[in-house]
């Protein structure tokens, strides 16, 4: 960055969301090189992504691209310093990278070590970041899904169905927190979102609770005053979830919350919470 007042600085970013249920991957680039995709038999591709402006440079929206990843494929995300050098142009670097990634039978750590050995000779002239991850698909018995009708009475039915599923999975220790999160998210999807509303529970390394609806309106976490009748929905979700967030789809949005599979240090309410009454709380 120069010392002039008019100088502009920014950061590049490649953002990816992989769904282990459907095998779909959604990506967007803010001035960053796209990924390398390694097919299960070792063929390497470089999917084309629309390249937006770097973060902090402009206010234009970013275009996302979604594609299907075969089970057992591998993604490599990297900075341009890995492939481009004073003595090597970008296309030449991509060819070297593809060759280093194409050899099968290696773990991600082994593949990363081989890539760095190939690409960093003799001495790198730029900072470098490399991330290699394998994809996988979850078994059907780790997923539970429900369509939710747009009526208030559906909230308790979904909560009860979710509770029964958690018991079947042996996750009774986290049932209370999961039921509370489902109640809040479903209630507000019905009240403030639009059809179709859906619920998905995913049992992986953690429990992921997802509620989708057809609206792209962004939820906002706010702190309600003690005299407010509502406004605590997302606050409760944030208190009980290990992490939570929103992602947008072509048909609306998904609000997700993640819980550890074993009961941890849950926030302890001063008085027992009535989940049915919480359905009346607004965000």
What Rg do the Cα atoms give?
23 Å
What CATH architecture of the largest domain would you give?
2-Layer Sandwich
CATH topology of the largest domain: Heat Shock Protein 90
| Termini Cα gap | 42 Å
- Secondary-structure-based class equals alpha+beta
Secondary structure tally, helices: 7
Any idea what the CATH superfamily of the largest domain is called? Histidine kinase-like ATPase, C-terminal domain
Shape: elongated
For the secondary structure, the number of strands is: 13
Could you give a short account of the major beta sheet?
A: 5 strands, antiparallel
Task: Summarize the helix and strand pattern as letters.
Answer: EEEEEEEHHHEEHHEEHEEH
The whole-number mean of residue pLDDT values reads 86
Whole-number tally of structural domains = 2
List keywords for this structure.
disordered C terminus, Heat Shock Protein 90, elongated, Phosphatase 2c, domain 1, disordered N terminus, alpha+beta, 283 residues, 2 domains, five-stranded antiparallel β-sheet
Describe the structure in your own words:
- The protein has 283 residues and is of the alpha+beta class.
- It folds into two domains: 13-134, Phosphatase 2c, domain 1 (4-Layer Sandwich); 140-278, 2-Layer Sandwich (Heat Shock Protein 90).
- Helix content is 26%, strand content 24%.
- It contains seven helices and 13 strands.
- β1 and β2 form a beta hairpin.
- α2 (90-101) runs antiparallel to α3, α4 packs antiparallel against α5 and α5 (175-192) runs antiparallel to α6 (233-240).
- The longest helix has 18 residues, at 175-192.
- The relative contact order is 0.11.
- Residues 1-5, 225-230, 265-272 and 277-283 have low confidence and may be disordered.
